[in-house]
Amino acid sequence: MSTTPVSSSSPRPLALRVAIVGAGPAGIYAGNLLANAVAERSGRVEIDLFESLPAPYGLIRYGVAPDHPRIKGIVSSLHEMLDAFPVVDDGDPAPTRRTIRFIGNVEVGRDVSLDDLRERYHAVILATGAIRDAALDIPGVELPGSYGAADFVAWFDGHPDVARTWPLDASSVAVIGNGNVALDVARVLAKHAVDLRTTEVPDNVLAGLESSAVTDVHVFGRRGPADIKFTPIELRELGEVRDVDIVLHDEDFDGVDPAAATNNQLKVMLRTLNGWRDRPAGTASRRLHLHFWHAPVAIEGDGRVESIRFERTRADADGALVRTGEFRDYAVQAVYRAVGYYGTRVVDAPFDEARGVVPNDGGRVADEPGLYATGWIKRGPVGLIGHTKSDALETITHLVADAEAGLLADPASDEDVLDVLDADGAEYTTWDGWLALDAHERRLGETHRHSRERVKVVPRDEQVAVSRDGALVR
After folding, report:
1. How far apart (Å, rounded) are the C-alpha atoms in residues 431 and 254?
2. Full 3-state SS string of 328-388
3. Are 139 and 127 within one domain?
4. Model-level pTM greater than 0.85?
5. pLDDT for 102-122, tens place per residue?
6. Nearest CA to 162 among 194, 131, 196?
7. Does the residue 361 lie in any domain?
């Protein structure tokens, strides 16, 4: 599958070498679009896709709950994009490299510098995304038992750089946020581990969830039901979780009219919420409470989380959020902060600390000819997968226009970056290495006692070893 190529009324042949930093959806879409655009112009492009992890796909592999079946389709599409351009066609009867070359387990700024890349490529595209939690500035946020949602997601997705265990000794937990990440966290906490056995959740995570003490999960949003940032499918999945009751509070729905919703998606979600309100009281062993109009004030406890305080909010006549002066306390033993992500900076690249993005104009990095950005590091951590595609299209359109206008300087060095990495002893992984790791994980799933589609390999060194046992095709 390929995305729509960038069009031009008067295409001219191009010959480009481009580095993309980040092999998540943003980087892969950008590489696919660029390869198609250059092919449309009968040109030639060599694209190196650098990834700090041994495996590709970024947050699709390490940032989405494993019980989302639609994620498999996204991974398949990304796989097809990386596999779509096998070798550079330069007339050589024995071509030596791929059009899009995956180079994993390499961190730009540690294993190779940004200057190294800019010396060897016509252009560099930053697509590092956002993997850190945004800050929540309230008292008590650093207490033991207060966790960033991104860290928890990384744990249950088997990220190689997080601890193998997670404390799940709290019976009542709070999740702060009203977006899809908050729902993912809440659903995984509330769900029974037995219902995750058929997913690709790692074995160490499954063991941790099987011993979980959680009985009540409370999700808090600052605004009301008409301002939720979920998607309908995320909300529907919440109501399908076995042996978990959804608890809502009538006071949060005063004045909320589904018919007055601003779009069809919101109408569907409000109807779903109202349908849950009409359910009779349940007898499930776990409960998932949805609270609205709650602004977090403080996390409290003597040495660790014991409770969380909120101030009730409401919307004024203009729709602005105002505080009411009414405070409520909830006894919880853990808090998960799902209030957004913060961009992942690249050493020596411009970075806006306040916004967590690379300063840019439509993908062109300010005052840095030949340097571009796409995805969350370009626009901030907002939007779904469709936004990532259109975002990459904008960036690549500008890059191609700059190339056609002669604004991209020729590389100062013809040295292959893999020679630099080899000389430094870097244990990089390749596309063929990922295919070997992918096949290995699927074999582990076939032989698993629960017959799973795959079992993720978690330790980084094991991922690298399995990958590098495959052919290091350059």
Report:
1. 54
2. EEEECCEEEECCCEEECCCCCCCCECCCCECCEECCEECCCCCEEECCHHHHCCCCCHHHH
3. no
4. yes
5. 999 999 999 999 999 999 999
6. 131
7. yes
